[in-house]
Amino acid sequence: MAYVLSWLSAVASFIGLGVALQTPIENLSGWKLVLLIVVILVFGISAIYDAWKNYKSKPKKYRNEKKINEYMYSILADGGRCEICSRDASWIEDDKIFDMLKNKASRGELVFFLHQKTDKIMQLTELGADLYIYGDQKFEPLTRFTIVNSGNRASSFLAIGRKKPNEPHVIEELDSSHPTYSLALDLLSTIKTLVGDKNDG
Question: Which residue spans traverse the membrane (predicted)?
């Protein structure tokens, strides 16, 4: 709602400026007409970009595992180095996702923070994925999340999921300026400290 009101206010100001000038377009001199066109273009581009950012930041709702897997594939496939905090990352059992993760692992773009390892996870570590198992430390975070483009604060974001009974699974994307992003980094740093060296098997 605040987003809509801010842009309504901007539109009102823009209209107010036009009314105040009260100069027919055909009477505008060359440089004034160019300036008007530039202002309109900047205003339009800003509005479109802001609308896109607002849409992207809205929590995404998924009612079934297939849709969740499609989302995970989309963010991981193009996401550079990714750090995944989960219980056992059971969603990697999906063949399409697993094939994509094998490529990421071989490029050194995959880090798992898990309560327990699985055969699939161990296959990925053999290809180059890093693995931290925190279950032996009597430490189990309730939060499940993925940091995409880890190490690049300009484009990195946090995808964090939550689920209530009888409601869709919700995933929120938060950029690196959000406090929750920093908390996620702190949590991963804590796990690394508890576990020590990476688990390679």
Answer: 30-52
What is the pTM (predicted TM-score) of this model? 0.71
Q: How many helices (H) and strands (E) does the chain have?
A: 6, 7
Six-digit token string for 189:
């740093």
Nearest alpha carbon to residue 180 among 159, 150, 149: 159
Sequence-distant contacts of 67-75: CB under 8 A, at least 24 apart? 68/169, 68/171, 69/94, 69/96, 69/97, 71/171, 72/97, 72/146, 73/97, 73/100, 75/146, 75/148, 75/159
The 3-state secondary structure of 47-77 reads HHHHHHHHHHHCCEEECCHHHHHHHHHHHHH
Residue with more model confidence, 60 or 174: 174
* Res 199: pLDDT: 64
Query: pLDDT tens-digit profile of 82-134?
Result: 999 998 888 999 999 999 999 999 999 999 999 988 999 999 999 999 999 98
